Amino acid sequence: MKRKFVAILALLLVLSCVSISEVSAHRLLIDHEIGEIGIKAYFEGGSPCRDANVKVYDNEGNLYLEGVTDDKGKFGFPPKIGMEEYTVAVDAVHMPGHKAETVINLSQAAAGAGSAGGTEMPLYTRVIAGFGYIIGLAGAAMVYMNWRRDKKI
């Protein structure tokens, strides 16, 4: 019976490890707005990506313009007439290795499918959810152990 419990516990441990998503404390994210096309570059924790190099390419891959984000991680550019798709690449110069790229499609954005902002949970929420999973697994293990003890009596 003890082997069965250990096997179940090992299976739960493996399943919990497999279901863990990638965690990155400083992953670079980009949001964008339509009008003057505005982007906001920020790290996963919410802090803005200041003074990052921004390159905007048209849908043919040609460099449309370059610039730098402001203190709030924002950068804006006017859309080119007749151009519906842009590729925006952001490189956090002060934090080497932190780069992000996104494709902005104006026709999709007008239909409401443009920005990915708000679809990902903040880091602190995911940490709290992780603790909740651990506590839930511990509770299930305690219930099982109590059930086994009562069954023996």
Summarize the model shown:
By secondary structure, the chain is of the alpha+beta class.
Kindly list the characteristics that best describe this protein.
7 strands, alpha+beta, 153 residues, Immunoglobulin-like, 3 helices
Could you describe the 3D structure shown?
With 153 residues, the chain is of the alpha+beta class. It has 3 helices and 7 strands. It is elongated, with a radius of gyration of 23 Å. The protein has 2 domains: 49 residues; 89 residues, Immunoglobulin-like. The strands form 2 sheets. It has a 4-stranded antiparallel sheet with strand order 4-3-6-7. Strands 1-2-5 form a 3-stranded antiparallel sheet, with no helix packed on it. The two termini are 15 Å apart. A hairpin with a 7-residue loop joins strand 6 and strand 7.
Topology, element by element:
Layout: H1 2-18, E1 28-33, E2 37-43, E3 53-58, E4 63-68, E5 74-77, E6 85-91, E7 99-105, H2 106-110, H3 123-152
Antiparallel strand pairs: 1-2, 2-5, 3-4, 3-6, 6-7
Q: What series of H and E elements makes up the topology? A: HEEEEEEEHH
The number of distinct helices, counting runs of at least 4 residues, comes to 3
Ends apart, CA distance between termini: 15 Å
Structural class: alpha+beta
Unreliable spans are 113-118
Second CATH tier, the architecture of the largest domain = Sandwich
Percent helix range: 25-40%
**Count the strands?**
7
CATH class of the largest domain: Mainly Beta
**Named CATH topology of the largest domain:** Immunoglobulin-like
| Biggest sheet: strand arrangement | 4-3-6-7
User: What is the makeup of the main sheet?
Assistant: 4 strands, antiparallel
What's the structural domain tally? 2
The dominant shape is: elongated
Q: Give Rg in angstroms.
A: 23 Å
Measured by DSSP, the beta-strand proportion falls in 25-35%
